[in-house]
Amino acid sequence: QELRPKSLDIKQEELGDMVEKEMASTSEAIEDAVRRIEEMMSQARNESSGVKLEVNERILNSCTDLMKAIRLLVMTSTNLQKEIVESGRGAATTQEFYAKNSRWTEGLISASKAVGWGATQLVEAADRVVLHMGKYEELIVCSHEIAASTAQLVAASKVKAEKSSRNLGRLQECSRNVNEMAANVVASTKSGQEQIEEKDTMDFSGMSLIKLKKEEMETQVKVLELEKRLEGERVRLGELRKQHYALAGTYDAMEDGEAKPAPAPRRGILRKPPLAQKP
Question: Which residues form the I/LWEQ domain (predicted)?
Fold first, then answer.
């Protein structure tokens, strides 16, 4: 105890309060995320329709389910932490228990911050996607990040928990539910992206005659460019094959400007090799 830095002791006295503050802050961030998603849902219904509305609703519904799963996970984690402290502190106070197990406590704080930050980032990414200002890939990355941070929270909570603890079993079940909901966000995002891109590419209903003619000419130019590029690649492929045959020793001399592959050598009758003589 004498060798420990005094500044570290002061910091550890505050660890217990920091754990409670971070868990409360995480819960508040998730509640705020749910409210923002509901606001985005009503905004999407007012400002979009058809395929885009369907895609936005599906993505936002999956995000809402994920937030609810995270909220339940945080509540269960908080109950498990209280159980751990009550069973392990003995005559010590809660603050003393957190200070004594400072590394475990710091792990809880870090994991809780990661969960809250991930939830906030997911909502911001969803907001940008609904407003057509963001990328669908951002939602996918945020979902993976949330799954990783919740796994970190479960691991930190699990370290000092009794194996027979009911709260631990509930926490592990909540973690599996979070992973499932995060996978649903990824799936709905990918399918929505495919729908939007397909519709944007093939929807010509709102174009005027002049606009249609311009799009038709631009598409013809692209087709000619691709055909020219394809022909060039075919020529390149032919030259590559000639060089391959030449290096392999199966190419004859050029005749009349055309290359003819050499005929395959005839196979002779395979004979059984003579037996080795005994010494």
Answer: 7-248
